[in-house]
Design a protein that fits this description.
The protein has about 170 residues and is mainly alpha-helical. Helices cover about 55% and strands about 10% of the residues. α1 (about 5-15) packs across α6. The N and C termini lie far apart (about 40 Å).
Length: about 170
């Protein structure tokens, strides 16, 4: 669901065109998945271009996100996309598969690529890595979008929603 298999193929194409590109991978999975992932990295010759960081949370995760030029988000299924929101709030542009839930929650933030179009995804990544002005515009748009998700505003929206439900009973 998270598109890890696609991520490796996408990154392989990015590295083919930009050999110095480096990817920090944050995440974890079921027993055996990490080992399989690391083995695939080695098999594809990407061990110098991908650093598997495992699980990170809080300040550690934020530090890695904040130090990145882009977030690659090839997830094939999401219920909300909190990682996208975290990245936008941190000022990191996002390239993601075009999922309805992401468009609904973050329209105008990420660059979207049709689901499964790995070559197009890689090209968007390469384009953004080379275009600092496009990234700067995305940072501005993303942070503006992320600011709409503040706790106070969400609390008021939730209260109003529940209040309207109660009045209709």
């Amino acid at each position: 669901q998270k598109g890890v298999d696609d991520l490796l193929k996408i990154w392989l194409e990015v590295v083919r065109q930009k050999p110095s590109a480096r990817l920090a991978f944050i995440g974890w999975g079921h027993p055996g998945q990490k080992e399989n992932f690391i083995e695939e990295i080695k098999k594809e010759g990407l061990d110098k271009n991908i650093e598997f960081l495992g699980f990170r949370d809080g300040a550690e995760k934020y530090k890695v996100i904040k130090s990145s030029k882009l977030l690659l988000f090839p997830s094939k299924y999401e219920s909300f996309g909190i990682v996208v929101l975290e990245s936008l709030a941190a000022g990191v542009p996002v390239v993601a598969y075009d999922l309805a839930v992401l468009r609904e929650n973050f329209n105008g933030g990420p660059v979207y690529v049709p689901l499964g179009k790995r070559e197009e995804f890689a090209q968007k990544v390469l384009d953004l890595l080379e275009d600092s002005s496009a990234r700067a515009l995305m940072v501005k748009q993303g942070q503006s979008l992320a600011a709409k998700f503040d706790w106070r505003g969400l609390g008021i929206d939730t209260f109003n929603y529940i209040n309207n439900l109660c009045q209709s009973l």
